[in-house]
Amino acid sequence: MRSLVVISLLLALVAYLFSELTRPDLLLVGTITVDLVDQDGQRPGGAVSYAAAVLKAYGIRACVVTVAGPDADLSVFRGHELHVVPSPSTLTFEHSYAWFGHQRKLRVTANPNITLSRRHVPRHCQRARTVILGPLTLHELDAASFLEYDGLWDQLYRGRQAVGLMAQGFQRRLAADGRVLPLQTPSPQLLAGLGHWRRVTLFLSDVETETWAEDWLGLVVGAAERVLITRGAQGATEYNDTGVTAIDVVPVDKVKDTNGAGDTFATGYMLALSRGLADPAHHAAWAASRAVMQPQSCKPQCAGDLIAGHVPPWGPADRLAGAWRGLAEVGLGLVEAAAREGLAALMHVRRLPAGALAAAVARAAESELDGEGTLGEGELGRVRSGAGGGHGKGQAKGQAKGGSAGGKGHVLSGQEGAGASVAEARRLREEAAAKDQWQSAGR
Ligand SMILES: *[C@@H]1O[C@H](CO)[C@@H](O)[C@H](O)[C@H]1NC(C)=O
Ligand SMILES: *[C@@H]1O[C@H](CO)[C@@H](O)[C@H](O)[C@H]1NC(C)=O
């Protein structure tokens, strides 16, 4: 009897290791673009094309799922397993440079408006160890679908995945004439894309987040596994369970062009993370530094060329080591979850009810329109206090901080009660409009 149990456990282990060895390394999802640049015509662009070029440099053959029309240049995906969702046109961005090339204005002139979701992804690609999502517009990608499982078998089949969301596109909207305009608070698409289980590694830049009140940042950080905000020449910031860490840039002799630096950072980070490298953030900064040493004229194809050869390819031994790590993490996760549940019960911390975040955003947007109340503060308090209702704001905050199982107290403590007022939000928006500061997409 006992030997039967041992034998089935061993068989399960062998099956697990075998399935880990045969799993695709990476799934990359997002729409490719045609970028019209005034001086030198037309070239492919978008987060996925930079990510694909960088992945190739790492020696990774990824599953790529993209939307493209007949006019798209798909050469940047050569060497990957490509699945194209056909469309009459390709997402087209018209770039015009102002401020002597430092400020970029963007306008969408063709938009397939197809929402990519997990159902567009072939079954075997859904099992990829690492998933990178790179939406460029609000409606282009159903990020939450990649976090959902169709039952227990699907959960076992797809197993633990590292999910990276390059969310720049979720923080801008299109004006009626196609101009790309920044959003001032986290979009419902972004919040939905983080799911319920704090599994997502979120990448944004300072351009998207500079107008966020501290509380919004706290909310997003609390809902993600980690958040990385890139800051151009100032490096980046990582928010995670350890706290807030500044990440220095890796200096280079000459910065030739910063296009794709953010996408390269995110791709390098996710690869380092899934390979278990000691310091993924530093590795990501190094990868980004290689990308800015390349001139714009050869991008996106050449974005990863200086990375190639510096990182040994990932062999079966590494995959097995990764599988062991995964197994250990699952074990530790179970222990930790049990401990956390116990702690939570002890401290009466409540879990957020499903849909609470999205509802709070919708309410905040409404009250902003009505011109009453403060942006977010009351709503955030209500969200934090969970379904319980009847909690004072102070107590809600106390709970959010006390719930150090989430480990995010420090993020909220900085500017206690500093929710930006509607007037403040309006002022920021007017300022932005006055400067005619359209979203700059460089980072
Ligand atoms: C794209 O489709 C969504 C619905 O899926 C719609 O709300 C949105 O307005 C569309 N955007 C454009 C630019 O057509
Ligand atoms: C948080 O980020 C820092 C900087 O990248 C890193 O050193 C630390 O290990 C991270 N902690 C967790 C729990 O991921």
TrEMBL record:
Basic and acidic residues composition bias: which ranges?
424-434
Recite the UniProt keywords alphabetically.
Signal
Signal as a keyword of this entry, yes or no, is yes
Domain named Carbohydrate kinase PfkB is located at 223-296
Which residues, if any, are the signal sequence? Answer: 1-19
Identify the taxonomic lineage of the organism of origin.
Answer: Eukaryota, Viridiplantae, Chlorophyta, core chlorophytes, Chlorophyceae
Which Pfam families does the protein's record reference? PfkB
Stretches with biased composition (Gly residues)? 386-409
Entry's Gene3D superfamilies? 3.40.1190.20
| Region Disordered, residue ranges | 368-443
Species this chain originates from: Edaphochlamys debaryana
Q: What is this protein called?
A: Carbohydrate kinase PfkB domain-containing protein
Q: Does the keyword Signal apply?
A: yes
Using the record for this protein, list the coiled-coil segments as residue ranges, or answer none: none
- Return the SUPFAM superfamilies for the record: Ribokinase-like
